[in-house]
Design brief:
alpha+beta, binds tetrahydrodeoxyuridine
């Protein structure tokens, strides 16, 4: 798989992705989003099948809000620094509805995903829902943020 894939229905996704989507949905229950009312969950699976979840955590000082993806990624970076990330699924729903709504990882989370990918020297697959309930699967983080800033720029 060297390009992004589109799935018209969740049923068409591989079973690992479906499992992560299910877990990411569960993670939204711990979202603290009283300001945006946009509840995001992320589920990450590691190379030994460890599962790490995250949800967005907001603050009255708005710039301090933290995305679900980074809550999960920084958590595993601390807990399991030697393990590799295989895949992350991201989902969201609005407070008013349990139905999933489209949510793509923001630019900051893409930047963090790219750095984890470089650090572990292995690709990270990314799954999320886009418009019209279409699911996207990306084979690596680099594809979501081409030409990103990295340690190479600091060292050169
Ligand atoms: N959010 C995420 O958790 N992940 C993203 O990639 C995009 C945005 C959260 C941040 C904020 O709590 C809410 O969604 C609205 O922006």
């Amino acid at each position: 798989m060297n390009s992004s894939e589109r799935f018209a229905s969740i049923d068409e996704l591989d079973s690992e992705s479906k499992y992560l989507i299910h877990k990411a949905k569960e993670a939204t229950q711990h979202s603290y989003a009283p300001y945006s009312r946009f509840h995001v969950g992320a589920a990450v699976i590691l190379d030994d099948n460890t599962l790490i979840l995250g949800s967005n955590q907001e603050n009255a000082a708005y710039p301090l809000c933290m995305c679900a993806e980074r809550v999960a990624l920084y958590s595993l970076g601390h807990l399991f620094p030697e393990k590799k990330i295989i895949k992350i699924a991201v989902v969201a729903h609005k407070k008013s509805s349990k139905d999933l709504t489209p949510a793509a990882p923001c630019g900051a989370c893409r930047q963090v995903l790219v750095e984890y990918e470089h650090r572990q020297q292995a690709k990270i697959q990314i799954v999320f829902m886009t418009d019209n309930m279409v699911w996207m699967k990306y084979p690596d983080a680099e594809m979501l943020l081409p030409g990103s800033f990295g340690n190479v720029h600091l060292l050169s």
